[in-house]
Design goal:
With 499 residues, the protein is α+β, with helices and mostly antiparallel strands. 41% of the residues lie in helices and 13% in strands. The protein is built from 17 helices and twelve strands. The strands form four sheets. Strands 2, 6, 7, 8, 9 and 10 form a six-stranded antiparallel beta sheet that branches. Bound molecules: adenosine monophosphate and magnesium ion. The site of magnesium ion has 3 residues, from loops.
Amino acid sequence: MTGTAITATAANLPLDNSFATLPPDFYTRLMPTPLPAPYLVGVSTPAAALLGLDPARLAEADFVALLAGNAVPDSARPLAAVYSGHQFGVWAGQLGDGRAILLGDMASTAGPMELQLKGAGMTPYSRMGDGRAVLRSSIREFLCSEAMHALGIPTSRALSVAGSDQYIMRETPETSAVVLRMAPSFVRFGSFEHWFHKDKPEQLKLLADYVIARFYPQLAATANPYQGLLEAVTRRTAHMIAHWQAVGFMHGVMNTDNMSILGLTLDYGPYGFMEAFDAQHICNHTDQQGRYSYAMQPQIGHWNCYALGQALLPLIGDTDAAQRALDVYQPEFGAKIDELMLAKLGLARAASPEQQEDDRMLFDAMFTLMQDNHVDFTLFFRRLGNLRAQDPAQDAPLRDLFLDRPAFDAWAERYRDRLRQEGRGDAARKLAMDAVNPKYILRNYLAQVAIEKAQNKDYSELARLLTVLQKPFDEQPEHESYAALPPDWASHLEVSCSS
Ligand code: AMP
Ligand code: MG
């Protein structure tokens, strides 16, 4: 932990701002807009620990003011960054931090972390927006950031939600809130696209050199650092999306302005976790074409890397070099998803290419079966860990998830055959599978229950849900109900971009 931060007051919180070393055309300096009479809604204890902050201190007035954007540390140099992007496959032009304000970066146990206030007021990039975020979407971002981190998936983090009784207009009026979120950098693919489309190669180079020096320093001395950057980001993006697929996470708005240059899950909006398995599932009800459906995510990730590649092309110098960097996507995604799926099924990698192909067919047959039977993604994998290699008599809890029991039995027999090739016993395999197949995920209805209570000023459910999600792989007998199938009312929940 950072000794200075433990004794820090909100005013003397030690902040640097590396992004502000870039020239002024990369951002606009401005203060957050105060949130009327703010109060603390939630705090993530592990996120506070990352900064060496005592979570209890965050409830005190000086810190609540900071978390709401009503006061900034003396050392802060607040700014809103400019970026552009492709939205739903179409060039959208300039976007930028329309409601997020970067305070600066702070030392953490994971290296320097940028602290950003989301929903902290209008900026020159707000376009038609009001610069605010509603409590509902702020809680969703807060919970999911911390849940994804606990699942071992690269993501931005969230320290807190501060709320206010100030109403803002969405589909209906809702109260506003501010999330303090953290990442080593919030630079996006769209930050590069911005300078490419403005035809400003000097700025493009400055940004690439900044990102390389700070986050990919090993590339600086290579023959073509910009090709190396594209390749490294492509690889990280492929890995991140393999993790999403393996846990059934759907981002919902994979626009290039929401893609992190560090391969972190960023900008939580209408995301969702897969429940009844449907590869075509669209979690964002405004995405009518299903561009960002579960099954599309891997190829959209690649498409987004192409958009980054196009933006970096003036620096990389030749199309072949850029193409070679982008070509790592498919093998990297393939290798990572194979690795994650094998672990989810408790299998070691088969020795021969033929056996590896057999394993892929086993996975495909499993997904087809899950799709046909609308099987809950999370319950399926968690219960699969209890299967005995020799004894189908124990299959019931898993088998009961299927309507077509004979089809399940046929698949389970294939799986059991495969298990018998493994040296590992049932108990050891279950232990390993439980460590990769979460018991607790952020189901939409769980978030909804916590949100509705918070809207009535009861924050206890939010705190409880966060604690459950911070140990997603543990059995938590006292929280068994959080692992249950969604209730009937939840099938009507819809999540849109209106945040
Ligand atoms: P998102 O889809 O949330 O990633 O946002 C896309 C763009 O719209 C970004 O430039 C955001 O800053 C901006 N934006 C979204 N909501 C608001 C809002 N309420 N006020 C201002 N800008 C917003
Ligand atoms: Mg965004």
